[in-house]
């Protein structure tokens, strides 16, 4: 079985959905299709939850009404046959009545998750019906019946696989199964999400669960580039990345992939292909265990970083001091991205600031605290990076850009720089020139 995931832009219009149908038809063998909500829908659902929380049910209802019209227009564009059209719209009305019922029932975390995952529910129903009307048999599956993910960092893919097989047992066997991305059942047996962009993660969890032959992530870009093409000219596509390289790039800001996407499939060595829905003939990027080339590969940037410095003349070298600091962050369930030390101070970064005030208050017991916000981590990635003769050139950026922190040596595949976000684009461009402009001919072979 192959797992094919299509993101929001890939299913953002009737023409895009027709294109997805053609792509699915061109892929041989059994297929499990994972779909996101239509582009823009999850943002509208987020608005509904905000109105819902504040008790503004009138505005929440207005957004629901517009979303219903949006999906009815999609049905009109996809279903010209009157009977099929009316059948789909009747079911849509039932689904949207259910959404209104959730809103009228009062706010809770459970109801919020039901709202946020509604877009995938609606879209998969329409898409399954569209394939059926086009003569393509398929089975529509409810992801909530098998996507039991209690631990977001370490999903039990074997359990998901067992539940998946139980769910399709007794069904008419089809070559195509369709299900929703993003949604999960959590440790409290409640509907929850895999967080924004989580449909990629759904695809690899399911890919690992069913021991897929391969996983295809279809999006609106032709694969990973060696730098961010939104800010840097003359970037090029990377034909191949290792799992570790892709994981580093995704975690440190490459928007093309959810940060946790590769983790479920590494041990099972299931390749992931990043493909462009709008140019399906393009080769894309393959992510696997194959180490086809070593050294400098790519640069990515992660925004929204906060730097915290703890200065303590008397305690820094004391036994157990670092442990006490880390326990503060552990207590507040906040991960640390980078850390550097000096004789009298420790600097570290976080990207989740929801508990920042409490963290600072706890840290004051250990020294003088300085907080700097609006920073970005620039990550340079490549298998065996520290052995590449061109890697030292990245430190020439210090001549041009004020760099707040450098993390080098923690991984042989990654060097990270912390800069003010206002200097992010300049840093990306400077690094690109210093690292890639003189070795472009070599990189083309990647």
Overall average pLDDT: 92
- Put simply, the count of helices is 13
CATH architecture of the largest domain: 3-Layer(aba) Sandwich
Which residues form runs of ≥5 with pLDDT under 50? 440-446
Helix content: 25-40%
Which strand order do you get reading across the main beta sheet?
3-4-2-1-7-9-10-8
Structural class: alpha/beta
Structural Rg: 24 Å
Q: How widely separated are the two ends? A: 29 Å
| Biggest sheet statistics | 8 strands, mixed
What is the CATH C level class of the largest domain, in words? Answer: Alpha Beta
SSE sequence, one letter per element = EHEHHHHHEHEEEHEEHEEEHEEHEEEHH
Task: Assign an overall shape.
Answer: globular
What does this structure look like?
The chain is α/β, with parallel strands linked by helices. The protein is built from 13 helices and 16 strands. The protein has two domains: 2-220, Acetylglutamate kinase-like (Carbamate kinase, 3-Layer(aba) Sandwich), CATH 3.40.1160; 298-443, VC0802-like. Strand 9 and strand 10 form a beta hairpin. The radius of gyration is 24 Å and the shape is globular.
């Amino acid at each position: 079985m192959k797992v094919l995931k299509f993101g929001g832009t890939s299913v953002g219009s009737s023409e895009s959905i027709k294109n997805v149908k053609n792509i699915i038809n061109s892929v041989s063998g059994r297929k499990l299709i994972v779909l996101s909500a239509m582009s823009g829908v999850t943002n509208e659902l987020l608005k509904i939850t905000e109105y819902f929380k504040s008790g503004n049910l009138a505005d929440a209802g207005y957004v629901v009404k517009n979303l219903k019209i949006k999906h009815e227009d999609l049905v009109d564009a996809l279903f010209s046959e009157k009977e099929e059209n009316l059948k789909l719209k009747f079911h849509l009305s039932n689904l949207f009545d259910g959404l209104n019922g959730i809103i009228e029932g009062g706010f809770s975390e459970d109801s919020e998750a039901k709202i946020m995952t509604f877009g995938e529910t609606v879209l998969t129903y329409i898409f399954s019906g569209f394939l059926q009307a086009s003569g393509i048999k398929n089975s529509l599956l409810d992801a909530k019946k098998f996507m039991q993910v209690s631990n977001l960092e370490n999903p039990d893919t074997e359990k998901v696989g067992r539940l998946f097989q139980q769910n399709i047992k007794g069904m008419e066997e089809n070559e195509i199964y369709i299900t929703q991305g993003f949604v999960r059942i959590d440790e409290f047996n409640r509907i929850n999400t895999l967080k924004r962009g989580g449909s990629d993660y759904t695809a690899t969890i399911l890919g690992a669960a069913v021991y897929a032959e391969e996983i295809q992530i279809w999006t609106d870009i032709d694969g990973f580039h060696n730098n961010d093409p939104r800010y840097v000219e003359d970037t090029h596509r990377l034909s191949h990345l290792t799992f570790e390289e892709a994981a580093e790039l995704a975690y440190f800001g490459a928007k093309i992939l959810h940060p946790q996407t590769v983790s479920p499939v590494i041990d099972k060595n299931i390749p992931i292909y990043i493909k462009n829905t709008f140019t399906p003939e393009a080769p894309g990027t393959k992510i696997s265990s194959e180490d086809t080339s070593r050294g400098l590969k790519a640069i990515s940037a992660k925004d929204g970083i906060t730097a915290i410095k703890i200065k303590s003349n008397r305690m820094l070298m004391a036994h157990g001091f670092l442990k006490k600091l880390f326990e503060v962050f552990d207590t507040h369930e906040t991960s640390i991205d980078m850390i550097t030390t000096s004789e009298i101070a420790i600097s570290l970064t976080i990207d989740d600031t929801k508990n920042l005030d409490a963290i600072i208050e706890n840290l004051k017991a250990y020294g003088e605290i300085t907080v700097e916000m609006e920073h970005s981590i620039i990550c340079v990635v490549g298998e065996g990076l520290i052995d590449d003769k061109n890697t030292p050139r990245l430190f020439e950026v210090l001549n041009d850009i004020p760099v707040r922190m450098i993390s080098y040596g923690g991984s042989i595949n990654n060097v990270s720089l912390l800069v003010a976000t206002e200097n992010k684009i300049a840093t990306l461009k400077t690094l690109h020139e210093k690292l890639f402009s003189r070795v472009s001919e070599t990189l083309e072979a990647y």
